[in-house]
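Look over what follows to help learners.
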Amino acid sequence: MCGIVGYIGKKEAFPIIIKGLQRLEYRGYDSAGVALLNGELQIHKCKGKVQDLLNYTKDKNLHGYIGIGHTRWATHGEPNDVNAHPHVSEVGNLAIIHNGIIENYATLKEELIQRGHTFESDTDTEVFVHLIGEIKEKQNVPLEEAVRMAMQHVVGAYAILVISYDHPRKMVAARKSSPLVVGIGDGEYYLASDATPIVEYTRNVVYLNDEEIACIDLENGLSIKSIENEVRTPFVEELEMNLEMLEKGGYEHFMLKEINEQARSIKDSMRGRLRLEDKEIMLGGIKDYEDKIFNADRILIVACGTSWHAGLVGEYLFEDLARIPVEVEYASEFRYRNPIINKNDVVIAISQSGETADTLAAIRLAKEKGATVLGICNVVGSSIARITDAGAYTHAGPEIGVASTKAFTAQLTILSLMALRAAKQRQTISEERYEFLLKELDRVPEAIEQVMKCEAQVKEIAAVFKDARNFLYLGRGYNFPVALEGALKLKEISYIHAEGYPAAEMKHGPIALIDEEMPIVVLATNQHAYEKIVSNIQEVKARKGKVIAVTSKQDEEISKIADYVIEIPPIADPFTPMVTTVPLQFLSYHIALMRDCNVDQPRNLAKSVTVE
């Protein structure tokens, strides 16, 4: 949520900032704005999309070699022109853009009002820039020092860029619990809330750490200090992504592209890790902590949204294969319920972006309690990758669509590898079963390539049910989390109410909802509970419900009783979630399109939830 772009150098800043904001549109936002230095401080902002900002500024003076731009997702104050970023200081000489939430903004605002400040907006961000401006004026300190001193009074999460017409060749950036990256070019610098706006211009980046302040001065270059005023040496990394990864590649939408990329992204997530010829799994990122996993009293998995669903599959994998007790927690609840965490616990934190605020808070709590914390994320250099003890990247590549698809299946791939590795080392499965499951996992990408052929059929089913008001998704065992994920996808992008349930729970309430108007998606691939799933379908049919069944090929019994059947290649139960989820993604995608919904940027949602 929210996007930050800044530029300082020798080029016109506005086109670079606008293109960067467009690359960040996938994060979700409701207003946009820019500030430019060109002898004076020019502020242009409005409610709506980046295109609305372009329309608003078409007759404006947009010259300037230093500027900042922002896409805002409303927290404090409704989405409107006034609350849009950038905001300016009381004197009007400073401009700020800000991701995050200032928790003590009301107290600070009241203090500033008592000292004569007036505010135009309802935002916490305007309070922050007024505080910086007051410190700078009253204490006569450089801009970067004023920012550092203001940070000592602020409680909350933030990534900020600040510019001043008093310092036309300088920009100051700072972060706490919200990502910020500095791209280093030839005598120029690019700043952003993630690397997607930067990769077009440079591969050399510096990721700011928590409570660091970066000062970019065209005379003196980049310098970094901590909030305690300690000088830090910038650590320059090379970006792994490229511009091609960020384009649609001929697909109509990013979501469709990313659904179709799953065979490749799963293969990339297994490459170098699954060594079939050696009958081995090697996870280099967690190698030094494997004994902790193998001997853990229990595993705690913390995550939010789709990543939480991946964690639920992980629970089945670790308990079924490795016989390690697992608890899966919503990160947002975990941190507030005084959880019992022991030193022999291993915490696995899962996040696509690596910046999810609640998950980061859960990690910090777990580390305070002495647990070993591992991360599974998709973004190199993200906060979770840096604060966990160890972890594994999913290698799914940039996921631009807000509704997660390939990141989910890539997370399942890493969890499968981890669980199989633990099972082998703990000798909780036979050598014969271990080798069989290795081969089954290795052929998942091929199975997904076959499932891609079902899109046309799923599109026909979508046309039948596009006007439904409710959906029910049912699954057993490994497929129960997939039922939850399928329902979430439909809610996210089509705005149809949908719920996922364990199939056996249908009789304990949801069966009351079933009538001829209710479509029920049944994941019916389970080998060990096949007869019970058939019984569930019979119960639905007896109440005139419409059944969409996802089955294994050559299934004859369910094919006779379900209204619609989507066939997938047979695969071992532990790995069915990676395959059964694909037709559910297609179903949500096509229903949403038929309802004229924005599948890549659903309303009210953000790709990376960096505030609580």
Remarks:
- The longest strand covers residues 167-176.
- The mean pLDDT is 90.
- The chain has 20 helices and 27 strands.
- The radius of gyration is 25 Å.
